[in-house]
Amino acid sequence: MLCLCHTGDDFPTKEPNVTKRESDRAGSIRVTSAMLRDMGLFGGLDEETLGLLARELPTRHVEIGEPVVEEGSHSQAMYLVIGGELEVVKRGHGAGDVRVALFGPGDWFGEMSILDVQPRSATVRAVAPTMLLEMTSEHVDRLLYRRDLKAYSLLVMNIARELSRRLRVADGILAQFMTTVSDAYVAPRDGS
Length: 192
Prior knowledge:
alpha+beta; 192 residues; 8 strands
């Protein structure tokens, strides 16, 4: 798995004593620039940009079992996990879905749809009540690219760093799998 994350009944926030139940009564947790500052996706962005993103990006609540994105679908939005937990699953051959990752607070997913227009590579669904921020390609264009090229560049570099990290993890898993298969099914060539 790419990420094992915390789950719980309360959405983590920088505002003390704000629980999921209180956020439900209020409609949603108010996202702040301080919450975004702690996410690697926004590393290096200034307070003004973080405040703008906190005000402009819409939130989405997802219940257990509800998909956020479906493998093969088309959309240009990525999601940032404010609270809760989600699983990433790929369609398996005949055996159903295969879980490949878990995401929790501070994680993000769907960034490939911001960079290209290919279909979704996996399904992501909630395994706990979850609150997300949604960032579409239009948000990236309007709030970053057209407003502040430095902020836009930092965001793209942060996405690239995370994609690189995930690729390294996937490479390690693939190498381990190939070694296991090779050891199990390829006869040793010791001359006998």
